[in-house]
Specification:
Rossmann fold, elongated, alpha/beta, homotetramer, nine-stranded mixed β-sheet, 14 helices
């Protein structure tokens, strides 16, 4: 299939390569054109603008850094929507808020093209390994059509309804993630003050009902007070804030997530905004 | 080996049977003697008192319901300590607080016998399947000696230092457990208010870094608002209370666990004390 | 002085009347013109549009219901800013967020007129009695000029710096208010569960270091589980939400206010949005 | 009246002197006898033991430092209970937990004497000025009899029922106090991060519905980051912990007080245990 791919950041590189490896004809575009060179050597075409890429391909994926970038790449005069028309499909796999997803969707569908939001759960390694999780919302027929492409890039995909539901699911998942890593941080702190080895705690957790890849992956770093950034703490805090705000909007009290959010705010006040999200453990330890 | 086993409740039955299956000569005792009959038919000897059991065996395990029972079985005139002497070993696998563990330890070691606390993580099924986790403290040499016996009953064992450390580790683990299940409850509540299927959330969690046996096991019950009791909510709340109190004693703030404890108190106020600990999700949902 | 007054709601009526009683020549305007009739009988002039009122008076006050109304009355083609020019002063005493205050300020000052935000602390009775508290920000010289007018309507005024600081101070004050009333609610609930009379608690509080008009005023209603609305609970929750968000923006953790906000959300989920803000006590009681 | 007074600490000195000034014949006793000398010069008799003081007086008051002292002074062989008999009255004005009050009550009433617990709200200055608040429980007839004596030492007294209710009321009051001072701390922190003067906030609070002696008294110290000890922070934290525990016992969730308790624990972890309870503001500021 002829596929466009907008955005060659850490995530986009891995994803676009996996589409190429699967035999698709991929046209790439990136704000900083230099990043496209390596892809051209590997056989990709290079587009001049998002508009051109969308116009020239059957399906275009966009993996942008944040809501502002997702809007800019889609909405400008050379933007993706300007190149869209009936018969074209646009799949935004960036992580954005529901309002941004809806704004992009409106611009795209107004042209007659179809739209799917598909934010991912997973970071660099899963993007390279093709083990991402796609949380999608929007056009159900488009979801069915691009399913095989998503399966090339990920190990799991779910369709959640209208545009915005993918973004909301991601908030819920990250809210649970923030609480879990803070729970681990409090547990390690209490164990340590009790004279128990943190490693023994991780060992016990790994053997029981709470064993999970995140504890195995992040636990040793917490014990070593070392937090190399996989998911920046400030982004985790932003997701907690937005999740609590979503609860505000829907009248759902979230007393525990709100307490976790405050722990993250304390971590930011301590200068840990750019550390890994697991650095909340240092703030919790006190 | 000649082994005594005191306490044939839900947990004790499974554990004693596993020792018998492994070929050990087991003498059982239970407060309600009727429970011993089945074991006698399976080839176990039956002791008249804890004192007699301890005096007649090289190693005696005790699996009692709570701290009061653990003290009563060990400390009375016909109690375990009265039968102990140098050359005898006593391993208390009951879940008790550190102070009770220390009181029992003092009574046993005063006779010249050795003591190990070894509270377990795991409930009925793991007891039957021999997949418990032992959190031990006390006599290190005794830990080495009974290691093979613990391995018959469990899949994991750790030695944590002085008597009381096993009890403390269990509090830490259960504190993390309480926070995690409450995080899941808040996540399901927020998803539901957002118009997302709870099943989709569980599905997404199962595919990612937070996948754990507890979410898989308890999640569907939360969606169905059904909480058949594996671990009573009131016991989970007690452990949260004790963990927060341990933090109080050690000057370790635990803001998130404290918020979780209040959610559990709300669940108890709603009449859920005897439901499964996952019923906190109903209190959280509001 | 020739004074304009825009907005004759519950608050505006009391304030405009106090200006008239003090001998000023007042021109009123209200979205629903009928409200102006009574004022005309008392000697006020009636303006046709905010634009006309501002153009015809030296100082114009605006007391609007919410940020949307404050913007609408100022920014439209017949709005206040359209009538403003150098030599005219505009004082917005509505309670709005900092962004709205800044938008209105920008529109007014762009004409050469001066602007002061002056949101009030206090409700209907203080507005009638002339005992409001003004939290002002913007043009310092204008603050000095209208000081005597504010003193006619209030008992206290402070100048806090740039436009937006008045709005922020109001959030801080209302955040403290929300926590205090929730503290009283928790205290009454704990006293009651302990078999203590709530009235005795109020009595003791009234005699000590925590004695305050709010406890005296709201306490009996909490005991009677009766919450006639002076300040709607949903508005108090909104202010808590905004205060916590301000903390988010400024990296100031607010663990207690965040917990209070969740209690208010629970109250709203229980159907208490339009009750008095003290109805949080019912949510807290559980 | 012939009155005994046990305990001449900071509080007891002021209280005993007020009884003497009112014309009563007072016999004092103190663990460290030296403190009695000054009282002897002012006309007081000096007792050799609590037993002797109780035996020789119609009513004896005890103002001891903590539960251990309250028990020691009452229960030993030379203790107050040993000197008690029908016709004697014992009023314990120490601050103790309900269990201690009940133990002392049982020992006293077993002799035929009457007992009243009457812990006070107020510190050194109110003790000297005779403006304490008495929170009493126990013998209602005794409460009536000693009312005039309590009025000499205090400005307010309430009778709350059985022994233990005075202690519980004090916990409730101190729980509210802890939340209020933390609310002020959070408010000052948020104001400060917003670029608002803390003094302006105190000024605004002083003019409104939340004006209270505590804010007026403690606010300036918080602004100056200076916390001369009137009520030690560690004692306030202990009361919060006990209040939350009382809520645990009675199944009353106290989410806000629990969050406040954690803030106090953080303050202790920061080394502020012996500072004034208002130093929680430093922990909250982060």
């Amino acid at each position: 299939m002829k596929i466009g791919f907008l955005g060659l950041g850490i995530m986009g590189c891995g994803m676009a390569r996996n589409l190429m490896k699967a035999g698709h004809e991929v046209t790439v575009w990136n704000r900083t054109a230099a990043k496209c060179t390596a892809f051209a050597k590997e056989g990709a075409r290079v587009g001049a603008t998002p508009r051109e890429v969308v116009a020239a391909n059957e399906v275009t994926f966009a993996m942008l850094a944040d809501p502002a970038a997702a809007r800019a790449v889609c909405l400008g005069p050379d933007g993706a929507a300007a190149g869209a028309a009936a018969g074209h499909d646009y799949v935004d796999v960036s992580t954005v808020d529901a309002a941004t997803a809806q704004a992009v969707a409106a611009a795209v569908t107004a042209t007659g093209a179809r739209f799917l939001e598909a934010p991912v759960s997973g970071t660099k390694k899963p993007a390279e390994d093709g083990t991402l999780i796609f949380l999608t919302g929007g056009d159900a027929a488009l979801y069915e059509k691009v399913g095989p492409l998503l399966d090339v890039m990920g190990k799991k995909r779910v369709f959640l309804g209208a545009v915005g539901q993918g973004a909301r699911m991601k908030l819920v998942v990250n809210m649970i993630m923030g609480t879990m890593i803070t729970a681990l941080g409090e547990g390690i702190a209490l164990a340590s003050k009790s004279g128990l080895e943190g490693a023994a705690l991780l060992d016990v957790l790994a053997a029981g009902a709470m064993a999970c890849p995140m504890f195995a992956g992040k636990g040793p770093g917490i014990l070593a007070d070392s937090f190399p950034t996989a998911f920046p703490l400030k982004h985790q805090q932003k997701d907690l804030r937005l999740a609590v705000a979503l609860g505000d909007e829907l009248h759902q009290p979230l007393a525990v997530a709100a307490a976790v959010n405050e722990a993250y705010k304390r971590a930011i006040a301590m200068g840990l905004a750019d550390a890994d999200m697991s650095a909340v453990a240092r703030a919790v330890r006190g």
